[in-house]
Known about the structure:
Layout: H1 8-21, H2 23-28, H3 44-52, H4 58-71, H5 77-83, H6 85-91, H7 95-109, H8 123-131, H9 138-147, H10 160-169, H11 178-185, H12 192-207
Amino acid sequence: MLTRISSQEDIEAGVSHLVERHPALSAILPQCGQIPLRLSPGDFEGLASIIVSQQVSRASAIAIFNRLKAMIEPLTAEQFLRSGEPAWIAAGLSRPKQRTLTNLSEAICRDELDLDALPSMTPQDAMATLTRIKGIGPWTAEIYLMFCAGHCDIFPAGDLALQEAIRLAFNLEDRPDDKTCRSISQDWSPWRSVAARILWDYYRVVKKDALPV
């Protein structure tokens, strides 16, 4: 069984598997475009981008991250620590994000975190490894594992856009919570990362909104 998504062909295989077995996903797929790969490098820069995007608008996240990359070249754990607080403030990083990125950088520099090892880990072990870093919560870890490490069976059940997409797809009266969404998503294993992509694209179409990541 495929454990890592690395190409558009992998996405198509996951879509085929899901729509053949799950009527709710099959019903919404015609409203979506081609389900995107959206795979980024699984390095410090990739994870830093996700951390920067937490709890801010997409436009703000892009602006802050572009400033950060312009000021720190290359954007590696070592260079981030070397640049220091004045550069972080000038880029627009909040104090909590400065601390999280510092914790992440120190873990990498001390060989306490090997990002290259995450794609070959089980989802459970990879999640545990990332969330040991103070400031990295489940959503950040799940988004990184999906879109940088390429895990095929991850579902960010706490994501508000996914919760709303499930409400609409299943004709639910209320938006389901994290626990309910996680329970529903169990049926989509081992392709939960593709199911999430379908639901995000459905949300984008229905709400006429940008993708959440």
